[in-house]
Amino acid sequence: MSLDRFLKNAISPWMKKDGSDSDIVLSSRIRLARNMSAFTFPMLSSKEEAYAVAKHVKDALGGTQGDALGKAEMLAMEDMRTNDKRMLVEKHLISPHLAEQSKYGMVLLSGDESLSIMINEEDHIRIQSLSAGFELENCLQAANAVDDWIESHLTYAYDSQYGYLTSCPTNVGTGMRASVMIHLPALAMTRQLQRILPAINQLGLVVRGIYGEGSEALGNLFQISNQITLGKTEQDIVDDLQGVVKQLIRQERVARDSLLQHSKLELKDRVFRSYGILANSYIIDSKEATRRLSDVRLGIDLGFIENTAGKILDELMILTQPGFLQQYAKTVLTPEQRDERRAALIRERLKLEHETAD
Prior knowledge:
Distance between the termini: 35 Å
Strand order of the largest sheet: 2-3-4-5-1-8-10-9
Order of helices and strands: HEHEHHEEEHEEEHHEEHHHHHH
Radius of gyration: 21 Å
Oligomer: single chain
């Protein structure tokens, strides 16, 4: 196994599975922040200390696999090209912080890419568990198993009163961020999101774009996660998030039913206009592409568009990002060239989907 294996396909093996409510919830994630007691935390550490952390973790974990992680591969940031790291970010396998800031960063990736351990990120260790659909419980179980395995090899920075100690005070306690990636086109079309999203923030949750903090919400895709990590157990955090997400799923289904009942013709027109634009455009920017893909995904979920997989949204959302576009072009592309390549890739992918169905 090598880096090329993780960059070969935009869709990770775990993304091909169908989880609960996968027509609305694209994915679930649990992330655990951990630090080692014997080392200065990354935000204050020197280059020498960062290198020592990387070596210590690699020596402790690199030669083992652990039942929780299975067959895995250790990859070093300093051995990667800039675009390689960008592609791993686009696949959500590493964070933008690890790709951009950490020269001595590493990531240990499981074979199916559902589990990753980032080293020398904002914290010494960031454990990430991913699953298709609404599967927070399964993600928590997998992340905890990896956490236990690591703790059997390393000593964490832990306080009996405050819990796990982290670089950012907002992560102290459980050190856990639970999140879901949710597709809410009907709530957006009916303008209910303007009322719902502020209410979610008041419940101690945060709504972000598809690449987390600082990213823009595109294609009616939102990442919803917990803000509070102290004073609650991991299970409490997951239960709270699940309760809100279940309500969002219910409201999105109600909004879809309302559109079908009262605006079916207008909705079909919107869906097929977007499909036509995607299937025939020769230039398209990322914002329009994601907006049109959102419409098409809704059309697939509602049965308007047949013989096209719903996963096409997940795939094309990644394939049309700058890193993958440049990988396939085998050169650095200007924004204008990316818009041209993006349109061509979408046309070819939709054509292939149609030919396969026939």
